[in-house]
Amino acid sequence: MDKLGLSSKRFTTFFVVIFISLPIAILVTSICRKPSFAIFEANKELHNVNNTMSQVVKGNIQNGTTIEGRAAETGSRSASSIESSTYDDTENVDDKLFDGLIASGFDEASCISKLESHRYRRKASPSHKPSPFLISKLRNYEKIHRKCGPHSRAYNKSMAKIVNSKNHGDSKCKYIVWTPSNGLGNQMISMVATFLYALLTDRVLLVRFGSDMDDLFCEPFLNSTWLLPKDSPFWYENNGETYQTLLERDKANNNSKEDFDLPSVLFINLQHTSNDPEKFFHCDHSQDLLRKVPLLVLQSDQYFVPSLFITPSFNLKITNMFPEKDTVFHHLARYLFHPSNEAWGLISRFYDAYLAKADEKIGIQVRVFSPSTTPHQAIMDLLLSCTISNKVLPQTVGVHNSSMAYSTTTYTRKNHTLKAVIVASLHPYYADNLRAMYLKNPTINGEVVGVYQPSHEEQQKFKDNMQNMKAWSEMYLLSLSDVLVTTSLSTFGYVAQGLGGLKPWQLFKLVSNGTYFPPCVRDFSMEPCLHVPPKHHCNGTLIQDFLSSFHHVGKCKDYPHGVKLFNANFN
Ligand SMILES: *[C@@H]1O[C@H](CO)[C@@H](O)[C@H](O)[C@H]1NC(C)=O
Ligand SMILES: *[C@@H]1O[C@H](CO)[C@@H](O)[C@H](O)[C@H]1NC(C)=O
Ligand SMILES: *[C@@H]1O[C@H](CO)[C@@H](O)[C@H](O)[C@H]1NC(C)=O
Ligand SMILES: *[C@@H]1O[C@H](CO)[C@@H](O)[C@H](O)[C@H]1NC(C)=O
Ligand SMILES: *[C@@H]1O[C@H](CO)[C@@H](O)[C@H](O)[C@H]1NC(C)=O
Ligand SMILES: *[C@@H]1O[C@H](CO)[C@@H](O)[C@H](O)[C@H]1NC(C)=O
Ligand SMILES: *[C@@H]1O[C@H](CO)[C@@H](O)[C@H](O)[C@H]1NC(C)=O
Ligand SMILES: *[C@@H]1O[C@H](CO)[C@@H](O)[C@H](O)[C@H]1NC(C)=O
Ligand SMILES: *[C@@H]1O[C@H](CO)[C@@H](O)[C@H](O)[C@H]1NC(C)=O
């Protein structure tokens, strides 16, 4: 659905925004001194965060160094910058390692974010603790991955067997090779689904990352790698038997298990294509066949976790791993996706400079699906209508409350609440408008609102890898918000909400110059939506209604054809 989240096309560097936003802030401040005085002060304060990171940020603004220059500095961050940070440092080891989700004993310098990220997480968030069963499954998985992963003896032996045998044989280690499809948001949600499938079937997950995925994430599995070695014959091979032909052969064989040859390698396409015949991937009979195939190559741009959840033989295991049903993505994404040192540098410096001091952080993701037919103003109206009426953003005097004239009492109203708004969009229009609105007009309660956009459309084009780096950093920054507003159907937003454990306000997907009411709805689950769910029960009858057939699977609010897991309080 969502090609590359919103960050696909063109990007400026993270910090070009500082060149733009700071001079504008100062300029506007000097024009309309009185109302925005507090904002200017707040900005100054933000820039004086006393730690090493902000020194780096300040130095770079003045010197105008390039993004590459900054990225290079990430690696040299010293322990003292951690000590001098403004966050309290009393958490125990469990907090640091995501309540036991992450195994200790990793090489800390190679992945700074694993140690530091807990300081950036929302303090007030409801804690979704991983279950002991999930933790033991993960520790067990890591053992299997170390034993069977690339460069091990078992890997060499198993791969040789798989390559050389015509049928499934009895390989000690079983694999699932994930291959990319669609944009980064789609790739991340499908990786999580594939990893859950690997956990359920004791397969080793290997990923086929192209150069656009270089150095976005740390290695997730202790003392091993998840990267499919470049010399693997499965790097290019997609032309083995397919899952679809296997199903056809199986049908022709009257589902009889005898005299049925299973291949050693099978290609499974679970991509978003609506007119395919039913895949029956959610049925035990299919899974019984697949279980015996030692190497599966899987391509999907979908979050097919709901399919796994309704598979009878997987249902109980998933329920035990995730007693809170809507935390599958939340836990597994936090387990798998740790920003590389380069990405972490972008994230933590932006956070320290703009978000750290805020009392409330509001993330807004605006994806424009049909730029040629939807004027910016229509989307801006939708956004304001959504955020103001649901009290996500404060009202300003004058714009939305014209009855209340400018008055001295308004200006002098004391309120030191600082709200930081982070806007992720390809276009600068939305952040620029919001920023101008809060600079020109005081808010009704007198809170101070700062608006920041990490990156936006610019002339400069980056390699795909840099686009992905920015997209990943933005998803992560959005996930650190206290309140999140996303655009319907955007997998970029799904990643942010899932990582952050947030139920976002979902803006209606506008495709023309119109208005829509309600402009947004509150999601009932932090899980991503599966856009193309199975249509049939395993006996071939149509699934009439997911909610009544399968507990905890309901229609997505942003896409009624799709389904997602939820915990309780579906409405
Ligand atoms: C940061 O704060 C510490 C103590 O609060 C102080 O000793 C140090 O000089 C400050 N550093 C800078 C660069 O302001
Ligand atoms: C700017 O860069 C120069 C040389 O690269 C360095 O000497 C100077 O300290 C830098 N200024 C700041 C504020 O970082
Ligand atoms: C696995 O095979 C590779 C060559 O394909 C070799 O370099 C490596 O040493 C082998 N590893 C083990 C543990 O046998
Ligand atoms: C991981 O590797 C490190 C360094 O080689 C080693 O000290 C540690 O024991 C290993 N951990 C596990 C669980 O194998
Ligand atoms: C499958 O069943 C049909 C009828 O039930 C029969 O005609 C056909 O020969 C069977 N095929 C195989 C491969 O057993
Ligand atoms: C305007 O502000 C006043 C004072 O805060 C408030 O009572 C009133 O409801 C607001 N009007 C609208 C239309 O929001
Ligand atoms: C400041 O604003 C917050 C909302 O952002 C509000 O809850 C609080 O009551 C305000 N305080 C004052 C003194 O107006
Ligand atoms: C969009 O609609 C509004 C009001 O319906 C109108 O004023 C405006 O000109 C339209 N803009 C475009 C680009 O069609
Ligand atoms: C097919 O399976 C569904 C779900 O298990 C069941 O509700 C339905 O009655 C079955 N239909 C037939 C014709 O067996």
From TrEMBL:
TM annotation in the entry: 12-31
Q: Gene3D superfamilies this protein is in? A: 3.40.50.11340
Which of UniProt's keywords are assigned here? Cell wall biogenesis/degradation, Glycoprotein, Glycosyltransferase, Golgi apparatus, Membrane, Transferase, Transmembrane, Transmembrane helix
Topological category with respect to the lipid bilayer: Single-pass type II membrane protein
State where the protein is found. Answer: Golgi apparatus, Golgi stack membrane
Q: Could you tell me the EC number(s) of this protein? A: 2.4.1.-
| Origin: domain of life | Eukaryota
Primary residence: Golgi
InterPro entries linked to this entry: XG_FTase
Recorded hits in Pfam families, A to Z, give: XG_FTase
Presence of the UniProt keyword Transmembrane in the record? yes
Enzyme group, top EC level? transferase
Q: Does the keyword Glycoprotein apply?
A: yes
| PANTHER family documented for this protein | FUCOSYLTRANSFERASE, FUCOSYLTRANSFERASE 2-RELATED
Function, in words = May be involved in cell wall biosynthesis.
Q: What does the sequence similarity comment in the record state about its family?
A: Belongs to the glycosyltransferase 37 family.
Q: What is this protein called?
A: Fucosyltransferase
Q: Which organism is it from?
A: Stylosanthes scabra
